[in-house]
Amino acid sequence: MTQYGFFYDQGRCVNCQSCTISCKAWNDLPAGPGKWCRMFEWETGAFPETRLNYLFAPCYHCENPVCVDAANGAMFKEAKYGAVLIDPARNPSPDLRAAAAACPYGAITFRTDSFDEKAQLCTMCVDRLEQGNIPACVGSCAMRALDFGPLADMITKYGTLRQLEGMPPSNLTNPSIVFKPHNDRKLYVPYDVAKARALHQQRMGLPNVYNSVSDLTDLPPGLVSRATLVMKARNVAEEARTTVNDD
Fold first, then answer.
1. Where in the sequence is the domain holding 105, given as residue range(s)?
2. Which residues pair with 149 in a beta bridge?
3. For the whole model, what pTM was predicted?
4. Which of 88, 64, 62, 63 lies closest to 75 in space, CA to CA?
5. What does the pLDDT read at residue 247?
6. Whose CA is closest to 149, among 109, 121, 113, 178?
7. For residue 55, what is the DSSP state?
8. What is the CATH number of the domain that holds 175?
9. How would DSSP label each residue in 61-119?
């Protein structure tokens, strides 16, 4: 078996959702929950040093898929491309709920929270691969933030980074993806951050916008709706919230 895998350039991605939409279109999936390909968006930092972070997250078709072990025969690793797939004859199955709990990336999704709901999972577009095409998500990426091929080729071309900041440790499953993180922040026009915060505090005779700089930097939990990466949703509603594009 030659293990195939993805490449994702976080710095080129603008979270346009072309990958998620093309996935649904190719696989004839209805709108709403049960995404085979997900895009996560979360905010870090404090004004004026904030940053939006994005993450491409289909199934990563891990080299060591712990979900398959937990699925008790309801899932398998396909032999030609290394795709991790669900056995349709065993779907729905309580074992697939156990597999979903085992996956550190939350890649196995459901359209509802009902215990007998069918599980859904990215198939690596094996049907397209058999036609000599690349996965729909990769082909639709207008920013060219995605690539796909034998995992060894992805590593040769792009390096060995298998996780981004905030993700679960990659050594548990060896996900079949290589990442390029976004670049560090750079001030092209240098300015005094402390002075900028002080100026924005004032409103010329009106009450201050905030009482102290700590109001900007020490934010209470929950004030920013998505301040951390949450790959494993507790329910369908949380998955919808964590994978929507606010733009």
1. 4-186+226-242
2. 5
3. 0.92
4. 88
5. 67
6. 178
7. E
8. 3.30.70.20
9. --SS-HHHHHTTTSEEE-TTT--EEE-GGG-S-HHHHHHHHH-TT--SEESSS-TTPPE
